[in-house]
Amino acid sequence: MSLLQMSNICKSFSGVPVLKNVQLTVEKGEVHALLGENGAGKSTLMNVLTGVFPRDKGEIEFDGNKLKNITIKQSENMGIAFVHQELNLFNDLKVYENIFLQKEYTNKLGRLDKKKMIQEAERLFQELGVDIDPTQQVSKLKTSQKQLLEISKALFFKAKLLILDEPTTSLNNDEVAHLFDIVNNLKKKGTSFIFISHKMPEIFRLSDRYTVFRNGEFVGTGNIKDTTPEAVTRMMVGEKYSDQDVYEKRPLGDMILELKNFSGEGFRNINLAVKKGSIVGLTGLQGAGSSELMQCMFGVTRAYSGQMRAMGKVMRDHSIHTAMTDGIAMLASNRKENSVIPDMSILENMYLSEHTLSAWKPVISKKKEAERYKKYKEMLNIKANSWEDPITSLSGGNQQKVFLARWLNTDAEILLLDNPTQGIDVGAKAEIYKLILELAKQGKTILINTLEIPEIQKVADYCAVFYNGEIIKILEHQEIDEMTVMMYSTNAAQTEEGK
Amino acid sequence: MSKKNTTVPGRIVGFLGENSYIIVFVAIFIVYALTTNGLTWSGMMNVFRHSAVIGIIGLGMGLICITGEIDLSVGSMLALDGGFSVIIFNITNSIILTFLFAVLFGAFCGLINGVMVGWIQMPAFIVTLATMLIYRSFAQYFCQHVDKALIGGGSSVYKMANSQSSYQTLYNFGNGKVSTIPIVGLILIIMTLVFVYITTSTKYGKKVYAVGSNMKGAQMAGINTAAVKISVFVIAGALVGIGAFLWIAMNASADPATTGNSYEMYAIAAAVLGGISMSGGKGKCLGILFGAMSYTIIDKIIVSLKMDSLINNAIKGIILLLVIMVQIIGPQIKQKLKKAE
Fold first, then answer.
1. InterPro entries from the xrefs (chain B) (predicted)?
2. B214–A341 CB contact, under 8 Å
3. CATH fourth-level superfamily of A255-480
4. Among A106, A130, A214, A390, which is disulfide-ready with A125 (CB 3.0 to 4.6 Å)?
5. In CATH, A4-237 is 3.40.50.300
6. Which is more confident, A176 or A226?
7. Among candidates B206, B274, B209, B210, which has minimal Cα distance to B58?
8. Rounded Cα distance, B182 and B186, in Å
9. Is the pLDDT of residue B3 over 50?
10. What pTM value is reported for the model?
C-alpha cells in the first residue's frame, strides 16, 4: 500500500495542457526524486496535490483515502507539507510563534501559553537535532536554519509527506549534509519525501526512487540505484530535434571584453575573454551565478574582486551610467519589473535610456525620436499601431523588441541579454534569435544568459556553463546540446566520473 | 486604447475623460457664477490672484507626486522662507536680492528633504513631516529672537519696513495689474506653462515620470533615480521660494504662525484634483492650475453665500472625496458595462 498514489492527472491553464495523464507513486518512508526541466510540470503537480490548483481529471489517493476536491487547509490536515523554495516564514515573528501560528496554545482566557509553546519547540528541535533557539527572531536566522525551521514546523504537525522544493539552493555543503542527515533519520521513522532538485549529485545521494516528467508528460519511474545520472538526464531532455540551424560562423574581431578572476555576489573566479562580434551563451540553473554576473558587469551590483576590461578600459566600481557611457547595454530579465515603464508610451519607453546619455541636450526633438523609432520598428519588426500607444498594449514579444531598440538606440558595443525570450511566444523567439545573429554580424558583441539551452544552441559561438557560482565548463558551438549542458549544469558529469 | 473614437464628439468625451479636472473646474465655476450677483471680470481676476501662491506650490507638489513621493513641509517652508525674505528685504532694500534669497533658500530647504528621501532613502512622509515641524518652529522662534528692527518692528509678525525706498515698488508688484490681469496671476500662468513644457517636452521631465512609474525599471534603464528624486524636492523648494516672494509682495508681511497653514494639504489636493496620481507616474501639470483655481473659487462661493468660513475646509474635503471617488469608480463601472455587453 503506497502512501500517495496519483494517477491520470490532467491540468490545463486557459486551454493549454500542462499536465497530460501523469502519475506519481510515493511509498511510505522513501525519498522520491521528482525530475524534469523547467516547465516540465513538477510544480503544477505539487500544487494540484496540495490543493492550490484544482485538477481537471485524475485520481489522488493519500494514506488510504481517496481525495476529491482538496483545499490547502485539508491537505495540510491530512499530513502533506510543502516546503517552498521561497520560504513562507514571517521574518518579524519569533521562531516558536512561526511554528504555532494559527495553532497557538492558550489558557482558558485566551492568553497565549508561551512557556508551553517554547518548551514544545525546544523538544522538537532536540529530537531533530536542529540547533535553533525558539525565542530567536526569524529574521536573524541563517537561510539554512530557516529551511530547517520550515521542515521542523511541518513535522511538528505530524506531516507524513514533505515536499522539498529545491531545498539546497541556498545551503553550503555542511548545511546540505546536515539537512540530508535529518531527512535520512526521518525516513527511517516512516516519513516520506518528494524531493525536487536539479542537482544530480544530491539526487543520487539522497533519493531512493525517481519519477521523470517531460513537457507535462510522465516519462518514467524507477529505483535510483538501477540508473545513472546520464540515463536520467536523457529521460529529462528526450530526443528533441532542434529546429533548423540559423547559426553561421562569422569572422571575429579583437578582444573586446575580458574578465579576470572576477568575483561578486553569487559568482566567483570568472575568467572569460570575448572577441568583438561574438555571441556568448551563459547558462546554468537558477541561482548558478550567470545572471548575477551580468548584473555586476552592467554596474547594478559591485564586484568583490578581480578585473573587468571592456573595450581596452579597466572598469572599476562602475555604475550603470558609466557602463552605458562605455558602450555596455543590458536587457534585464524579468521584463515587467526591470524594463517596462507602464505609464509611458512605446516611444517614451524606447528613448528613455539614450536620453540619460544625451542629457546635455535637454529638449526632446520629436522629429528625431520619431525617425529613430521608425528605423528600429522596421529593423526589429515591431508590431504596433501608434508610438503613442502605451507600452502595456503590446504583446510580450513586441515589448521585448522595444526594449532591444531602447538599448540599440544607445549605440552600445556590448549587449548583455539576460533571459531575453522570457515569456515570449515561439514565433517571436525565432525572430529574436535572427536579430541577435544579425546584430553580431554588424559587429555587436552579445552575451546571452538563458536557462533554455536550445536557444544557446541556435546562436552562440560558445557557451559558459555555470555551476554553483563558477564556470564549470566552456563548450564550443558544435559541442552545445541539451544533454551535455544539462550534464554540466547539474554537475552530473562529476558524479558520473566519481562513480 | 486599442480603438480610438475618432468622431468629434467622441474625441471631446475622450479628452474630458483624460482631463477630468476641467469638468470639476467648470462645475465649480458654474456654481460660483450662480451664487454671485453678476459675474465680474475683476471678480474672476481676483480668483487668479488668490490662486497664485497655492498654484505655484502645487506645481512643485505635483512634480514630487509624479515621482511617487510627498512633501508635507511646503506650508511651513513658505512661512520660514517668507519670514527670512522679509528680513533680507529689510536689510538690503533690494527686490532682486530678496527674490534670489527666497528662491535659493527655498531650494536649500527642499534639498534637505530631497537628500534624505532620495539619497538616504528615508520615507518621504516621515522626513517631510519632521521638516514641517522644524521649519514652522524656526519661523516662529526667529521671529521672537531677532532684532525687532529686522522684522519691521512687529512683535509676532515679519513685517516689511515701509520706510525702505523699495517698499512701494515691491508692494505694487504684488498687487498690481497688467491690463486688468493681476501680475501674480500672470506669474502663475507662466510658471504653469514652464512646467507643462518641462514635463512634456524635456528629457528631464520624462525621467521624472519614469521614476514614479517604475523605479526599478528606471534605474535599469540608466536613470539616476536618487538624483531625480533630490531634484524634484529642490525644484519644489525653489517654487515655494517664488511663492514666498509673491506672498510678501502681496501682503507686505509673513505671519510665522498662520502663513502657509494647511498649504501642504491644499497643494496635494490641487495636484490630485488636477489628475496627478499619488502613487506616481501619472498626471499633467496643467491640471494643477485648474485644481488650485477650483479651490480658490470654493472660498469665493462661501463668501458670496455669506456662510461661516469655518465650513470651508469641510466643503473642500467633500469635493476632493467626490472627485477621487468618481475617478476610481468610473473605470470600474465602465468595465462592468463592457462585460454586460
1. ABC_transp_permease (IPR001851)
2. yes
3. P-loop containing nucleotide triphosphate hydrolases (3.40.50.300)
4. A130
5. yes
6. A226
7. B274
8. 6
9. no
10. 0.80
The answer to whether domain A4-237 and domain A255-480 are alike in fold is yes
Lowest mean pLDDT among A106-110, A389-393, B97-101: A106-110
Q: Supply the pLDDT for residue B19.
A: 73
Q: Quick check: B222 and A300 CB within 8 A?
A: no
Q: What is the CATH number of the domain that holds B276?
A: 1.10.3470
For A68-99, write each residue's pLDDT tens digit.
888 888 888 889 998 887 677 888 999 999 88
Task: Determine which of A11-15, A361-365, B116-120 has the lowest per-residue pLDDT on average.
Answer: A11-15
- The residues near B168 (Cβ < 8 Å, ≥ 6 apart) are B162
What is the rounded CA–CA span in Å between residue B243 and residue B249?
10
Complex ipTM value: 0.85
A267-316 confidence digits (pLDDT tens): 999 999 999 999 999 998 877 889 999 999 999 999 999 999 999 889 88
Q: Which of A64, A60, A16 is nearest to A41 (CA)?
A: A16
Residue B337 lies in a domain: no
What is the predicted pLDDT for the residue at B39?
A: 78
Find, among B110, B112, B108, B113, the residue nearest to B128 by Cα. B113
Is B324:B272 a contact under the CB 8 Å cutoff?
yes
Residues of B whose CB is below 8 A from A300: 220
Q: From B258, B256, B297, B278, select the one nearest B159 (Cα to Cα).
A: B256
Structural contact between residues A277 and A414, judged by C-beta atoms closer than 8 angstroms = no
Chain A CB within 8 Å of residue B213 CB: yes
Q: How far is it, in rounded angstroms, from Cα B249 to Cα B247?
A: 5
Within 8 A by CB and 6+ apart from A440, the residues are A250, A277, A278, A279, A446, A459
- Alpha carbon of A497 to those of A230, A237, B252: distances in Å? 11, 21, 89
Bridge partners of residue A7, in order along the sequence: A59
Q: Which residue range is the domain that position B241 belongs to?
A: 10-312
What are the start-end ranges of the E strands in A276-353?
279-284, 303-310, 313-315, 328-331
| B325 falls within a domain | no
Question: Considering only alpha carbons, which residue of chain A is nearest residue B280?
Answer: A343
CB atoms within 10 A of CB A164: 25
Determine the 3-state secondary structure of B94 from DSSP.
coil
Task: Give the pLDDT band (50/70/90) at residue A241.
Answer: very low
- Where do the domains of chain A lie? 4-237, 255-480
In chain A, what residues touch B282 (CB-CB under 8 Å)? 343
Taking CA atoms, what residue in B is nearest to A335?
Answer: B217
Band (A239; pLDDT cuts 50, 70, 90): low
pLDDT above 50 for B4: no
**Quick one: cell of A244?**
533548423
As a whole number, the mean pLDDT across chain A is: 87
Residue B206 has its nearest CB partner, among A338, A352, A410, at A352
- Cβ of A390 within 8 Å of Cβ of B202? The answer is no
A127 vs B69, residue with greater confidence: B69
